[in-house]
Write a structure and sequence with these properties.
Strand order of the largest sheet: 4-1-2-3-5
Structural class: alpha+beta
Mean pLDDT: 88
Number of domains: 3
Distance between the termini: 72 Å
CATH topology of the largest domain: PTS-regulatory domain, PRD
GO biological process, one term: regulation of DNA-templated transcription
GO molecular function, one term: RNA binding
CATH class of the largest domain: Mainly Alpha
Pfam families: CAT_RBD, PRD
Strand content: 5-15%
CATH superfamily of the largest domain: PRD domain
Protein name: PtsGHI operon antiterminator
InterPro entries: BglG_antiterminators (IPR050661), CAT_RNA-bd_dom (IPR004341), CAT_RNA-bd_dom_sf (IPR036650), PRD (IPR011608), PRD_sf (IPR036634)
Amino acid sequence: MSSLQVAKALNNNVIIGMHPEHDEVVVIGKGIGFNRKNGDLIPLDSVEKLFILKSHEEQEQYKRLLPKLDEKLIEVIGEVLHHVQLQAKKPLNEHILIALTDHIAFSINRQKQGITIHNPFLYETREIYPQEYKMAEQAVSLIKDKMGVDLGEDEIGFVALHIYSAMTNQHISEVRKDSRLIADMVQVVETTLEYRIPLQSLDYSRLLTHLRFAIERVRRGEIVQEIYRLDKLLNEEYPEMYMLAWKLTKIMEKRLRKSVYPAEVSYLTMHLQRLSQRKEQGEQR
């Protein structure tokens, strides 16, 4: 049976230990450090909730953060990550422990001081990352139950981006940039069409989803099969929407600093043409 040897208990919920596979690690789990002495062995299969920091750099960052944290918060974050990991069904990037802990600790302090920060991409986040948003709702609800602090809906959006970042190994700054890019492209569409797309509509949801997956394809460098006859037909039939789609792909190229395959213009043109028809139908009523 594999065991973890305690090198030092930092508090009731955090220990430094020697792991059979990862050498020295920081281990976070509810009550894992309670009454532990140096040299104690903890059977790994007896630990219900475990989050391990293997990177030495991440370990040092967390140790520096630890003295500023309420032990209750450490316990709650551990529980949040346990639930996220179970639902994600894959390993999370371990940086989420530091990033999310620091973010939530700061949010709780702000809340206590009566300072609120508006999340300009809340609706987009809920539509683009529904699974992560649901996990974030559960996390904020757990924090409210355990710590008596209601972080509010805006924070759900911020926490959802941290969860998405950890699930995709994409840095949180890149995730935020993508959300901003999508919001900016939607604004270009609405300005060009002179049409405010209803937020709760299926068309709005489809557009956000399409833009999200287009950005992901560009980031991965995924080849999108070009259909020459379709491209030619769309350019001839819907020249205004084709030009708008072309403009959006150029915005993507500039912001992502990656090439966008021409086929993306065709697929985007079809989405934009549907929106244009919706606008016309609305004006005819």
